[in-house]
Please model this.
Amino acid sequence: MSMHHSSRMKVCVYLEAAELFSRSGFYAAFKNHLRALEAVGADYTTDPGGRYDLLHLHWFGPRSLRFLRRAKRKGIPVVIHAHSIGRYDFAGGFTGTRLLAPVYEKLVDRIYSQADALFAPSEFAAGTLKARGLGPVYVVSNGADLSRFRPDEKRRARWRKKLGLEGFVVYCSGNVLPRKGVLEFIEVAAHFPKLSFVWFGKHWGPLAFYPRMEWKIRRAPGNVRFAGFVDEPEGAYDACDLFFFPTHGETQSLVLLESASLGKPMVLRDIPAFSSLEHGVHCLKGNSVEEFVQAIEAVISDTELRERLSAGARGFAQDHGLPAVGKRLLYLYRKILEGKA
Model:
């Protein structure tokens, strides 16, 4: 295939039933990829019924599978975005899903094996897929529209007032589920009675019912607040001072990128998904309540460390900004097309 032809390459990026997922992480990733392609002036469509050189699917509902088969018949390469890496997403998610996990993984693998390439949001996710014999797998950041996630003193003041925050504030964001680290968040907060700890994100209640977690939430110390879903996260996060994320499992976290982009010092659990963040450079990492307490203590008491982590976090976020992601997508689309040619 001559470069002349590939420079006019047209890509279809498709997320079926998008409105169903409007609050999910992969809807955000889908929107970010469209914006990233715009940022680099790429030619794309979101209509899988049209004409295009490559199909990039963000989910695999019945319509997606129909277009996947159609593309295969026409010799159009298909990329599937592996937002879900199987069993790993399920354990500790919603009630009852543990039983489904192995079945789900088989289904996912059957669909993924039909793609010409898989995109995964992190090295960790890519490794998991390769280990199951799938591939080729390329790492593509979910990206983050970080243009809104820049420190802004006025907005910070407004949100601090709105949320009634004073002093040093530690925050986390995500669905209120055990695997997000809710219990550790509450436990660590008990060590810092003078600081505020705020958790943003939807509390699903009985749908994700974990009696022990619900009991702990009801008995959480007075300095812990569950603030619910916020529609202007850039303001809510900016009102806080340290991002504490004791999650047990993520693929690539949007909340982390948004927090990093705001230059918030970060204290994270040391899990494989965060292996590309360096302890002491982009964040501090811990594995237990004691280590989290020490890390937060260090950030509070050491201004120099705080500034270094803030700068390191912003640098990390830059690599996941839309222009960087757009360039990466174009490069991979061409590579896949040329491989097919």
Q: What stands out?
A: The chain has 14 helices and twelve strands. Residues 1-6, 90-95 have pLDDT under 50 and may be disordered.
